[in-house]
Amino acid sequence: VAAQSTNTLFDLFRGWILEHGDTICFWRNTAPKWITSDPDVIRAMLTEITIFKKTDAIPNRTLFGQRITGTSSFLTVTDGQMWATKRKIMSPYFTKIHLTDMFENCHDYIRRGMESMMTDVKLGETNVDLVWFYGELFQFFLGSLGFDMGTGLVSENAKFHNKVIQGILKWVPLQFGATWQVAKMRFDPEVNETISLIVKLRNICGQILKKKLIEYEEEGAKPDDIAHHVISSNKKVDVNKGVNEIWTYMMDDMMTIFLVIDNMAKTLSIMMVRLMREKRVYDKLCEEVRKADLTNLQTMDKSLRYTEMVILEILRLHPTLMRGIRVTNEEVKLNNGLTIPKKGMIFFGQLILHKHPNYWKNPLEFWPERFESGSKNITPFTYLPFVAGPRVCMGKHLAMMSMKMSIVHTLKNYDITPVPGTEKDMDFDYRFTIVRPTKGHDAIFTAAEEGA
């Protein structure tokens, strides 16, 4: 607990693993738990879903009892049958084939979102908080997935939605703290404001959902509308579920979409924090970005090969999700002689795995070129920014596409530099589920030099 509160938990685990072996047992409170960096064990955890199941005992889906996403959304669902049903219907939305059709609309939203964001930025003067900047941009982008309903409902309110999401991400993880800290936090005015904002955002989700249900019944499901996929997937979950229960499931899915879209924003803010302090990589990236061809998805991917390497390297050093947890359905004997009893909890940590010297040359060095051959030289199940196996992140192609667009529209027209006096400041919060920058995330935007 002390290590987690001081941001050194994964350093502690990494040290233990390097000293004692790839899978170790440790005690927290009165219960044994296991953590592993063994690719074979991780493969089993992620693919043998009848033996290793997701846990629903993680208290980060509510804030002091106020429901956020629950345990039934298409990303957090732990029930195996419900998960299979939802995934079957939701996953086609995120395929590269479908994103090829959505490219133009998604690109238009990123372009307009950047234009909107830059109206509040005075070049060479404004201190831009990159966490909030990209958070708001991606709340604007959410409109491209069908949430705007032709009225700008979501994109025009991106600033408010971002405030809610940043409040959730700030306060929800702190519920893991010491009892006295949590009790004190409950009376914090900002916490109570966040609770009320969550209620408002769920009400907005309800408004969108009601209109989408009418649209769905009258016009049928539209392939480019993610809310229609949410409706279809929940209608198939269980005919014996009550109307109110199905409504709650759909609301959880809508809230999940508002939340997970911010994962791309976090990755971009971390990336820019690093790039501003890595001149070699920054210059090489800008040279490519300023020649990029965003005619369609294929031309964009082809013209942004180095950009993709930089994103992959950022996700290696600073994975958006830093750990995975599974609970055993039966006793499991590991290849190192350890036995995990039934209902035992085992973790893997991307922050350990992605920096393990057995799998990565110079693992702490920021070197995008290590991905020049793609995944060819990577040991399976040692690079897991989107996890792997049946529960691999459905949205990984959407994430890569939208992040590339955002990078182009940031660096095509602008240069970014650290705020004077913060050139050497850079730190990240690894205490909880989502990695985020805590130092060095303020930037100055200036016009890109002609011909640069």
What does this structure look like?
The chain has 452 residues and is α+β, with helices and mostly antiparallel strands. The chain is built from 16 helices and 14 strands. The strands form five sheets. A five-stranded mixed sheet has the order 1-2-10-7-3, sandwiched between helices. A three-stranded antiparallel sheet has the order 6-14-11. Strands 4-5 form a two-stranded antiparallel ribbon. Strand 12 and strand 13 (436-439) form a beta hairpin. The chain is globular. The relative contact order is 0.16.
Sequence-ordered SSE layout with sheet pairings:
Layout: H1 2-5, H2 9-20, E1 23-28, E2 31-36, H3 39-47, E3 52-53, E4 62-63, E5 66-67, H4 80-90, H5 96-118, E6 128-129, H6 130-141, H7 158-171, H8 179-185, H9 189-219, H10 226-235, H11 243-275, H12 279-289, H13 297-303, H14 305-317, E7 323-328, E8 332-333, E9 339-340, E10 345-349, H15 350-353, H16 396-411, E11 414-418, E12 427-429, E13 436-439, E14 442-447
Parallel strand pairs: 2-10
Antiparallel strand pairs: 1-2, 3-7, 4-5, 6-14, 7-10, 8-9, 11-14, 12-13
Helix pairs in contact: 4-10, 5-6, 5-16, 6-7, 6-11, 7-9, 9-11, 10-11, 11-14, 11-16, 12-14
